Amino acid sequence: MRSWGTAVLTALLSAFCLQGFSMAADAETGLLTAAPTSPVVRIKDITRVQGVRDNQLVGLGLVVGLDGTGDGAASQANIQMVTNMLQQFGIFLNSDYLRFRNVAAVMVTADLPAFARPGSRIDVTVSSIGDARSLQGGVLLQTPLQGADGRVYAVAQGALVLGGRGASMGYGQRTPALTALIPGGAIVERDVPTTFVTDAVITLVLNHADFSTASRIAESINNAIEAGTAKAIDQGAVQVTIPAASADNPVEFLAAIEELPVAPDAPARVVVNERTGTVIIGASVRVAPVAVTHGDLGIRIGVESTSLFDKETFGEQTAMLGGSCVEDVVKALNALGATPQDVISLLQAIKAAGALYAELIVI
After folding, report:
1. Which tens digits make up the pLDDT trace of 253-296?
2. Under CATH, what is the fold of the domain 4-49+196-262?
3. d(CA 21, CA 36)
């Protein structure tokens, strides 16, 4: 049996021909060049490894150093929090007489990435929970960040970073911001155990579940390694068995698997945005023979001229198409001077008639 490393290299070199690329020789250099005929991506671009995931963290903290834009008297959260903090330093005050316009109570959130080790830094987001007017110029005090299990996994602290400017009456002015970032503002204190190999099996989870794509991923791995190495268990996951030779180094094996090429399938879909007039059409979208009229616009797709579909019925602005590609339909309508709203209305009518073999999504 050939080495799986050599097999993966062979698969990468031959992927252009096997997975949707046509090869042609350059007339001057004699070298082979690849002309893409269908989208080919790496397995790592359309899948993730089961067990490798982020974890959400949250904490309640205080932002100080504000220029009178902190929480007002109606907000008691910052007063209670400041009182508790001062007590930790041996200062005991009556909270009924305290007012802190330079302090704001905030929620601090972060995503703890997989394999983050103690001492690593992660970004945090700070958001006001009181009636503060702005967090501009504030500094977050040390805030423990907890996971869903209530344990502290990171501690955040640092100066807030606010970006963006608003515009009013032609003059630039700072936008009052109640949400800010602290790049690298939290230090990881505890790591989360992560396991991506179970009984010598790695499970690849598709980012967009599809039976055809899952089958192609398994086929690509089996062609490169060995038959039976990968198996699509459903439309959203592919199980990969680690060869005995790589049992002690699953990371290297997984890295090679993720570099293998595959041509993902995509459902036939048309997405339209009525606000902007944008129409996005998938390559697999097809239209059955149909005749549609919209105001003074008309379009015939694969329909012969008959008395039922004459110009008296459709008007002068009529397009006749013999193909079944939606792209041609949109081009024909644009040539007739149709507005984006006209195009969207006609596509919706074609879909309602059952002649559009695609999912129509309006956003």
Report:
1. 999 999 999 999 888 888 888 777 788 887 778 888 877 777 77
2. Aspartate Aminotransferase, domain 1 (3.90.1150)
3. 5
200 DSSP assignment: T
DSSP string, 78-132: HHHHHHHHHHHTT----GGG---TT-EEEEEEEEE-TTPPTT-EEEEEEEE-S--
CA distance 231 to 214: 9
Residues 6+ positions from 268 with CB-CB distance below 8 Å: 282, 284, 285, 286, 357, 358, 359
Identify whether the C-beta of residue 279 lies closer than 8 Å to the C-beta of residue 341: no
Residue-wise pLDDT tens digits, 59-117: 999 999 998 888 887 777 777 788 778 888 787 777 666 667 889 999 999 999 999 99
CA–CA dist 10, 49 (Å, integer): 24
Burial (CB < 10 A; 0-12, 13-18, 19+), residue 291, is: buried
Cβ–Cβ under 8 Å, residues 21 and 37: yes
DSSP assignment string, 13-29: HHHHHHTTEEEEE-TTT
Distance CA 131, CA 124 (A): 21
Given a contact cutoff of 8 angstroms between Cβ atoms, the answer to whether 40 and 15 are in contact is yes
Every domain range in the chain assigned CATH 3.90.1150: 4-49+196-262
Burial of 25 per CB tally in 10 Å (0-12, 13-18, 19+): exposed
Distance (Å) of CA 110 to CA 51, 143, 154: 19, 12, 9
Q: What is the pTM of this model?
A: 0.72
CA angle, 308 as apex, 306 and 310 as ends, to 5°? Answer: 65
